[in-house]
Amino acid sequence: MSEILENIKDRNPGEPEFHQAAEEVIDAIKPVLDKNPKYRKHKIIERMLEPERVVSFRVTWMDDNGEIQINRGYRVQMNSAIGPYKGGLRFHPSVYPGILKFLAFEQIFKNALTGLPMGGGKGGSDFNPKGKSDAEVMRFCQNFFIEMTRHIGHRVDVPAGDIGVGAREIGYMFGTHKRLTNEFTGVLTGKGVGWGGSLMRTEATGYGLIYFAQNMLEHKDDSMEDKVCLISGSGNVAQHAIEKILHMGGKPVTASDSSGYIYDEEGITQEKLDFIKDLKNNKRGRIKEYVDEYSSAEYHENKDDEEFNPLWDIKADCAFPCATQNEVNLKDAENMVKNGVKLIGEGANMPLIKDAIDHVLENDVLYSPGKASNAGGVATSGIEMMQNYLGSYFTSEEVDNRLKNIMKDIHENCLSAAEEYGHKDNYMIGANISGFIKVADAMIAQGVI
Ligand code: NDP
Hints:
Mean pLDDT: 97
CATH architecture of the largest domain: 3-Layer(aba) Sandwich
CATH topology of the largest domain: Rossmann fold
Shape: globular
Number of helices: 17
Helix content: 40-55%
Strand order of the largest sheet: 1-2-4-3-5
Bound molecules: NADPH dihydro-nicotinamide-adenine-dinucleotide phosphate
Distance between the termini: 23 Å
CATH superfamily of the largest domain: Leucine Dehydrogenase, chain A, domain 1
Largest sheet: 5 strands, mixed
Structural class: alpha/beta
Strand content: 15-25%
Radius of gyration: 21 Å
Number of strands: 13
């Protein structure tokens, strides 16, 4: 197996995030390949690691000063064995093909786990929406989508949001697509509920994360009730994770952005969360403004020379990293274990580095990888696609029930796949195996293409 990874590193130089995601899956599925020689014979994992298509393009737009700006746009169409490519768009200065390949690769397994017919893809741009006016964001989105439109379609590839892409950006991109194609089709998910969007899509990733955590706790005869929870991020996933923790009687005490974090020992209540939502979604402010409003909280500004993130060095029962990849290093993981954290649920994609995962698993922490525990977002996107095909709407209650059932099924499938291959209660191994087998069998059935 090490040759496969070495080959990936040689063929994709300078893309450490992609190598990291590949290594996790290659290690986890080894027993499946040993037991089922057909997957080696058909070179399934090698094929999964080579994108079906990568599109890279120039995005030119004009800023408010009349100056021309140039960004790069991408779409990685990784695997379409079980359905149209599906995965979000990320607008962040750190975006480059290596990040998108890691995310698109993860998406293959995540989408398979939902049980819905969706392949894996991811895209985005190195455009930074932070500090841009609405008009600038609109002009960027329009120019980005003028090119993107020719590569996607409601039966081909259906993008959604991710970091830096929320309701505002989806609206501008959908409008551009409609104008260019003269068609009103469900070519993007995360749309507004008045124009083809699904109720509960906004909440789905964060809510699904906590439903999954609740399943993990119930598996150990426990619950979210009274659990002190650490959350990183203050965007879409973090906000709705905090909300669902509150619904389930837990106590969220932290939130963060890329500048620093707040710690509210008295707990973030629904009223305080509403303040965060307004601050981040409408005012586009910074999390440090929370302490001006609530004196019960303290703010910690990030420092460049910090070896660990003090957010993860607070006494708690559960931790939910919901910001970005590789935000939890080994020292952070050691701090969590030392402080009594018993459950880590990944809301972000790949927030724990490999050593951190190894450390928490060695210390019997219940750990769920993002591809399982944050799958509620894409699952609800799949439900949105279904509604668009039908030309109909489901109620909030219907969508929420489907979401709960999907998260429960993913939980059970992870456990049973892990147990079958001798790794009881290892959600990381179970998620990779379960997702892999579904896509691998479809690829074999569809021949050598
Ligand atoms: P948002 O853009 O809504 O929020 C992202 C949050 O993370 C912000 O608080 C942001 O702070 C912080 N953040 C982003 N980049 C960094 C960084 N490099 N260092 C520190 N903090 C950072 O994104 P989402 O909530 O949608 O996404 C968060 C994570 O969840 C991502 O990993 C995404 O891939 C994953 N995810 C999202 C899904 C969805 O449905 N939205 C579905 C599945 C996974 P700041 O404002 O300062 O940038």
